[in-house]
Structures are given as structure tokens and as C-alpha cells.
Amino acid sequence: MIPDSGLQEFRTSLRGQLLLPDDSGYDEARKIHNAMIDRHPALIARCAGVADAIAAVKFARQHGVLVSVRGAGHNVAGSSVCDGGLVIDLSRMKGVRVDPAARTARVEPGVTWAEFAHELQSFGLAATGGYVGTTGVAGLTLGGGLGWMVRKHGLALDNLLSADVVTAEGRLLTASSTQHEDLFWGLRGAGGNFGIVTSFDFKVHPAGTVLAGLVLHPLSKAREALRFWREFESHAPEEVANGPVLFNAPPELPVPDVLRKEPIVGIGGVYVGPLETGKRVLRPLRDFGPPAADIFQPMPYSAAQTMADFLWPAGSYNYWKSGYLKGLSDELFDTILAWYAKAPSPRTVALLEHNGDGAMSRVSEDATAFGYRNWPYNFLVTSIWTHASESEANVRWTREFFEALRPFVADAVYVNYLGEEGEERVRSAYGAKYDRLVALKNKYDPTNFFRMNQNIKPSRAKLGAIA
Ligand SMILES: Cc1cc2nc3c(=O)[nH]c(=O)nc-3n(C[C@H](O)[C@H](O)[C@H](O)COP(=O)(O)OP(=O)(O)OC[C@H]3O[C@@H](n4cnc5c(N)ncnc54)[C@H](O)[C@@H]3O)c2cc1C
Predict the structure, then answer these.
(1) Hey, whose CA ends up nearest to atom 50 of ligand 1?
(2) Atom of ligand 1 nearest to the CA of 453
(3) Could you give the angle at the alpha carbon of 310 between the alpha carbons of 426 and 69, nearest 5°?
(4) Is the C-beta atom of 33 inside 6 A of ligand 1?
(5) Shortest-distance atom of ligand 1 to CA 72
(6) Among 88, 89, 370, 446, which one is least packed by beta carbons within 10 Å?
């Protein structure tokens, strides 16, 4: 129970807004991308800047309140919202400052990849981020960052130069390769565990106009298409980010009739480099089949950043499973295709990502807290549906599908694709680095103040210290 005077003092200490359950806007503010998450925080502090984040940490410590930290609110596990505690909501902190000459950019934690790409495009620049535009720069970078330029320029976190961090004690630190280096190591892969990042400084890259899109085959031709892609991909240059995606055409997508009668395998991606070279490189992929549709075209990088957004509409129910793949066998493809054909929801998307064998694999495993750099292929099924009544069937199917894939999946998972899956799976996201992360947590957050995340538990935790 927090006295009214304490709440009033907190409210007046903020430049941003403090929302309580009876306030208008509260219900909207507690919603996130995944409709499965329906939590009721006691307080939502919509921070306007660093001072608000510091005030929120100090208030929560003083009153023993559970906190969650929200960037753009996209994490499927829903860790950005808590029940009964304080949401430190950074989603309105949307500043971006680009330095075109230095090819760097400073970004606040409420910015999405679409917004960041928009700001960079004016200068012909782009950042290596995610595959869609709606996700947050903050959460995505702090866990890794797999996207269209990962093979050419590495993970989003490989391009992080420094970060301003509000610690569990309410202090502001700058972490970089020369300041608080241990914190900088941990932030890059297990970021939410160590503090609130209020500013990210990134290296960015020339991109301009890129060749981007998809070739589309009906599911009945998917076996051949996947086998062809496997061969194509094994020689594809790092300029190509590419992967098959299984989906059903939503009504708004203009596709030929043959692609409305059965699910689609889209093989798509982005070529970041000279257009003529890109056309030559992608030609075999675009000729194979031939596909029922070829929607590759030149576009600004900022358009490529948002071209896949239609597959993951906001406000739907989501349940995901993911793991790095041991290889790309025919049996793997057949299992995926057989299970996808039985998906209970037409909005469900399954995909294979080729992230490795490029820039991210050249960074040493020890350089950051990011889990694994040497599993080049990743599997992800994102079950998506629209009514709560369909939840049980979709969750069950997703679990059974993933069980069927166990023989093909390594004991290693990308932390940002995890749901609420328990401590063992968090360990699977960090492997041998887990113990070093615990030691870092002991140093920077010994009471586990930041626990609404894929949590690294401190070994010296006074877990009762914060209710
Ligand atoms: C539709 C969709 C597509 C996706 N596509 C990709 C993709 O292409 N590539 C990829 O790598 N990932 C992808 N992801 C996963 C994505 O990386 C994570 O969901 C990520 O957490 C999203 O960032 P956010 O800021 O929106 O997170 P939020 O949900 O706001 O936060 C998630 C967690 O991150 C931490 N956090 C957020 N902001 C801060 C901060 N400023 N300081 C400290 N901790 C913070 C907190 O622990 C928080 O609980 C996708 C997710 C979705 C839903």
C-alpha cells in the first residue's frame, strides 16, 4: 500500500504521465503486441526522459514495488507488463539523431525499427535491426537483433557503440568498450537484466535502394522449393538475407488465385548492394519453379524494413516456439511442411532464418553475452489467431509441432524468441555464458530488481527484498 502522498510526490516528479487503473488511457497503455498478455499493473509511468526513468526506479525501490520495463512492447513473453506493479514505459521516448558524416545514430528506447529506418533513409543509411518494422529497437537490440543485414553487418548489438543505462540503484552510467565494459558485455545479449537503457548509440551503414521481396510457391510445390533454396543459400553472398516463410495469403495481399487455394511458401529477402549485382545473384531464385508470383522489386531500405509487417498484425493472440537448427535435412523440411498443413489458424507463420555464416559469425563468442553465433539456421513458428476461444487448440498444436521438431533442433535458442518457458530455456539461450551473467547480475542487480525479463537470477539474491 502506497500512501497518496507518495503517489502524489511521484506524479509531480515526472515530466511524463502517471497512469492508474481508473485513469483514461490506462487500458490502452497496458496493451502490448501479444493479446495473450492481459496484465493489470498498479501504475504505468510513461517516461518522457532519463529523469523520469530514474524517478521511477527510486520510487519503486522506496516502496518495494515490482517493476517491468517497456520499450515498444513487442516481446511475445509479455515481460514489459506486470501485474500489480509499476510499468516503466519508455515507448514515448522517440528521439533519433543521425550523424551522417560519422555514420552513427543515437536512438531513444521507444523507437521502432520502422521509425529508425525512416530517419536513416534520408541519408541513404540503414541500421542492422529486425525483419519487421513494428518491433522495438530497445528489446530487440538488448537480446540480439536478427534482421535483413545480419549477414553483412552482424547483429543489432554488434553495431552498438554505447548505451546510457539507469541502474537498479537509480544511477546513470554510460556503458561502452571503454566504460563499464563488463556491463556493456552483459547488455549485449541479456540487456533487460541489468538496467534501463535510455539511449543507444549505433554504427549505421550505407544502404539506399535495395532489391527486396519474395517469390511465392503453393505449398504443394514447397518440397522442391525448399530443396532448391537450401542449395541456393549455401552459396549466397553476405549481401543476401534470405529465408522461407510459410503463411496463408491474407485477403489484402494481391496474389494469383492458385495461392489462395493452399498455404504459401514465400522465399524472400533483401539484397543490400548494387542493384544490378543483386538482380544477377537473385536470378536463379526468381526463376526456379517458376514461382506462382515474384514480388521482388527495388525499394528504399526503409520500405524493405516494413515489407513483412503484414504477417504479424498487432493485437492478435501469439504463441511461439523456436530453436537453432542442427542442419537442413529433407526430413526437417518434410516435418515442417506436414505440420504446417495442419495449423489450426490461417494467420500462423512458420519460418526458417539464415542468419549465420557472415558478419555475426566473425565476432568471437566471448565478445558479448549473446548466446550462440555458430548455428547459422534458426526455426521459428509464430502461431497467431484472433479469438481467445481458439487459444487452447493453437497452443497445443504449436507445442506438438515443436516436439516433432526436437530431433532437428539444438539445445540452443534465441532469447528474443522465447515465451515464458522457464529457467532451463533461459539457460539454453546463454549456454556457457550463463554463470558469467549470474556474476554480473550479482554485481549490478543483486536484489533482482529487474526480474520481469528472461531472468538471470543473482545467486546472492535477497528475493524477498522487493515484493
Ligand atoms: C512481430 C514480431 C517480430 C519480431 N521480429 C524479430 C526479428 O526480426 N528479429 C529479432 O531479432 N527479433 C524479432 N522479434 C523479437 C523481438 O526482438 C523482441 O520481441 C524484443 O523484445 C522486442 O523489443 P521491444 O522493445 O518491443 O520489447 P518490449 O516488449 O518492450 O520489452 C521486452 C523486454 O526487453 C527489455 N527492455 C525493453 N526495453 C528496454 C530498455 N530500454 N532497457 C532495458 N530493458 C529493456 C525488458 O526486459 C522487457 O521486458 C520479433 C517480435 C515480434 C512480436
Answers:
(1) 135
(2) 47
(3) 40
(4) yes
(5) 26
(6) 446
Confidence (pLDDT) at 461 = 57
Minimal CA–CA distance to 339: which of 388, 403, 387, 248?
Answer: 403
Q: Going by C-beta distance under 8 Å and a sequence separation of 6 or more, which residues neighbour residue 316?
A: 34, 35, 347, 384, 385, 386
Q: Is the CB of 162 under 6 A from ligand 1?
A: no
Which tens digits make up the pLDDT trace of 396-445? 999 999 999 999 999 999 999 999 999 999 999 999 999 999 999 999 99
* Ligand 1 pocket, residue 356 CB under 6 Å: no
CA 2 – ligand 1 centroid, Å? 31
Write down the pLDDT at residue 464.
43
DSSP 272: -
CA distances from 338 to 246, 322, 335, 341, 346 (A): 12, 17, 5, 5, 15
For residues 366 and 349, the answer to whether their CB atoms sit within 8 Å is no
How many whole angstroms separate alpha carbon 295 and alpha carbon 109? 33
Alpha helices in 19-109 (DSSP H): 26-30, 50-63
C-alpha closest to that of 212 among 127, 146, 307: 307
User: Please, are residues 209 and 299 in contact by the beta-carbon 8 Å criterion?
Assistant: yes
pLDDT of amino acid 301: 98
pLDDT under 50: residue ranges of the chain: 463-467
- Please give the pLDDT value at position 177: 98
Pocket lining: 144 vs ligand 1, CB cutoff 6 Å: yes
What is the 3 CA–ligand 1 centroid distance (Å)? 34
* Residue 145 φ/ψ region, left for φ over 0, alpha for ψ in the -120 to 50 degree band, beta for the rest: left
Strand partners, 196: 166
Identify whether the C-beta of residue 105 lies closer than 8 Å to the C-beta of residue 116. yes
Q: How far apart are the first and last CA of the chain?
A: 11
Assess whether the C-beta atom of 192 lies below 6 angstroms from ligand 1: yes
Say what the pLDDT of residue 241 is. 83
- Give residue 466's pLDDT: 42
The Cα 29–Cα 21 span in angstroms is: 10
